[in-house]
Amino acid sequence: MSRPEHIAPPEIFYNEDEAKKYTQNSRIMEIQEQMSERAIELLLLPEGAPSLVLDIGCGSGISGSILEENGHYWVGMDISSAMLDVAVEREVEGDLLLTDMGQGCPFRAGAFDGAISISALQWLCNADKSHHRPVQRLYKFFSTLFACLSRSARAVLQFYPENGAQMELVTSQAMKAGFFGGVVVDYPNSTKAKKFYLVLMTGGSVALPKGLGTEGASDGVDYARRDRAKNLRKPLKSVRTWIQEKKERRRRQMKKVRPDSKYTGRKRCGRF
Q: What range(s) does the 18S rRNA (guanine(1575)-N(7))-methyltransferase Bud23 C-terminal domain occupy (predicted)?
């Protein structure tokens, strides 16, 4: 059976007929609700106080309704106008935005206390149009998501990676954008119940929670490697060395450059 993202772009695949399934098919709704509950659980929102959550790929608003039931406010974004029409018909409480997640999250910095996404992230791994570059679209999405979250917030994105390479692509771009975290796998030994959750943290590296259906240690895959990467960086050059090398490059390019002197690269005093 072909994966949905291999059939057509999301704005075309999720047409009016497909959108109706999300309100008429009880099995689909049950699965979506279960994954939404699990995503909210992994989000670790403060208890006893409402939070503002971004729902990415909100579709017909099923996950948003679960957020409402848990006492939270939400804003949903989706690329399918048909799915958002169904959400409006269902009279969901969240605000809805028609947009492509591959073009980024268009919200002010630190606006949200958390973010969830159900079955949407894998669509960014496809090049549905000639100008689409999955790596660039993933980085654009993760970097703008990082920006619009508060510095103690988490993002939990349930997705269906096609293979290990695709999982590595997704997680590497998330870490490049500044996130810590990794993948939590629920029921890893079950064909039907197995689910992947990308758990991202903005406030620093924390041990990943244990996946459901596992015994002992967590079945999650930790991709938080930013601290180790810092040790691998090249030592910074002095300002004087950097200026001299730049001037040499410009001289080789036959460009006009001021002559070197004992003042080249010298730090100015406080008066300036």
A: 200-268
